[in-house]
Amino acid sequence: MVNRDQIQNGILKYVDEELVKNNAGIGRWIIPVVLPYKIGEYLSMLDTNKDALIKMGYMHDDGMVEIERIYNDFRTVADKYGNVVVALPLIGSITFSRQDIDNLYMHIIS
After folding, report:
1. In angstroms, how far is the first alpha carbon of the chain from the final one?
2. Cα(62)–Cα(76) distance, integer angstroms
């Protein structure tokens, strides 16, 4: 299990090491400027959806997150359905694969 700070720090490390360093365009500058302001909004979804996440077995009443369960579920879906492409304003399209799930997970638990 992990807490909100571990998730936030893992996401920030993943973005820096995987997205920023591998982006040759303007995203290399935009991502590190914008993400620290947006990360709180993204993590607030944990609070907004806490009841549903608890029912799904992804979160506990104390706010701790079952990251291993989430990781395994997303790996299964990625294996079944393949990569996803996300279009980000000012940055362009980014393709996420199962390897990204593995990398993000390792950043969160480290």
Report:
1. 12
2. 27
- The continuous run of DSSP H or E covering 94 comes out as strand 92-96
State the Cα–Cα distance between residues 77 and 21, nearest whole angstrom.
Answer: 26
Cα(71)–Cα(84) distance, integer angstroms: 16
CA dist., res. 52 & res. 54, Å (int): 5
CB 78 within 8 A of CB 98: yes
Tokens at residue 85, please?
């492409």
Q: How far apart are CA 3 and CA 19, in angstroms?
A: 23
Calculate mean pLDDT across residues 44-70.
95
Higher pLDDT, 60 or 91: 60
Residue with tokens 């591998």: 22
**pTM exceeds cut of 0.85:** yes
